Amino acid sequence: MTGNATRPRLNRVVAAAGPKAPVRIVHLGLGAFHRSHQAWYTQHAGDSAEWGIAAFTGRRPDAAQVLSEQDGVFTLVERSDAGDTFEVIGSIVEAVDGNDVGRLAALLAAPSTAIVTLTITEAAYATDAADAEHSATPLGRLAVALAARKENGAGPLAIVSCDNLAHNGTVTREAVLSLADTLDPGFADWVRANVSFVSTSVDRITPRTTGEDIAEVAVACGYDDAAPVVAEPFRNWILSGAFPTGRPRWEDAGAVFVEDLEPYENRKLWLLNGAHSILAYAGQLRGYATVAEALADPLCRDAVEKFWDEAARHLPDELGVPEYRAALVERFSNSRIAHHLAQIAMDGTTKLRMRALPVLAAERAEGRPGDGAAGMIAAWMAQVTSPADVKDPLAAGIAEANTLDGDRRTRALLELLDPGLAADPGVLAQVHRLQDRFTASSTSASR
Fold first, then answer.
1. Using the 8-state DSSP alphabet, how is residue 9 labeled?
2. Where does the Mannitol dehydrogenase N-terminal domain lie (predicted)?
3. Quick one: which H or E segment has residue 53?
């Protein structure tokens, strides 16, 4: 297949990518972030020739279809204000429709499969019994495939969550065990004995690919790539947990393995992801579309700094928080990475529980009001007024709250995040008051 008379379609021959590595990693949630992060790290491991990835899509088969036509290879564009660099990534050796539970079960039943990685979004970790029985969700399909591994006697493996959840390994373990117990209590015992759950902190800003990005790759690289990925140069991966049947040498590419992940994941969830949430809600109210635009606005920047000051008080000094904050400002200011606020704003009820609520609780426990954390919640409330703009697992509850007025609406929205907060008159008044800062300013913001 060719893009025009002279330009070939990217594939392994065009890329001179060499033979495919054997599948030893299965990934659920094939998307841009997985390809810019775990796939990149796997390609840059010293033993990458031994570790191929079979990646399954999440909601739709589109990404699998496009990548399959390219033998799994794609171009990673690293974009900074200094310019772009291009690299072909070939660590994905099979791209599969996420609904193909049979193929997923076959791969997990193979003793050679050692690792399952996940980028399924934070909201996907909520489960119920029907998920396993009908393979309705990524974790439901994973439970069915793990049962096939048990039946085949294929031995232990590691499951590695790469989603922005505090204690994501523990959350994954509890969800999978709940589903396994629904299928068969004996199966849940097998999971406890044979499956390790690795916690991680992941970081790399990866905006959605645009038509302009596809055109740029064609001109710069001389081939047509229907599935390039654009990312910032920065990347970070911190992992904690056991890999009972081995893993790639990801440390060759800069991954860090630690005993205690919690301080690192809190630094990332609060400082990076928390700032993103503030910018997503306050920035859209101010008429901005990207992180770089919103950060340049004094009101948005001040809201971020207030929250960072609060979060920093609850992080260990050895994490180098001042340097981390300075690096975030530089990264967020990268005007050539169009990190869209609407994308970040999705699933707000899930994200705010991890980003705002822990800092608010910690501040209040020490006798401070926590206006920075409460301001993040207030910005969300001020922004989620249009049903068309709300993409959230609790969208119906948000819509119902939006039929109410004044502090009744504030209370209803707070109840979606934490009923205890909604019952606290002080927090209710605080969040209700702080909304005015964003709604009043949104009408006067200039572009």
1. B
2. 24-251
3. strand 52-56
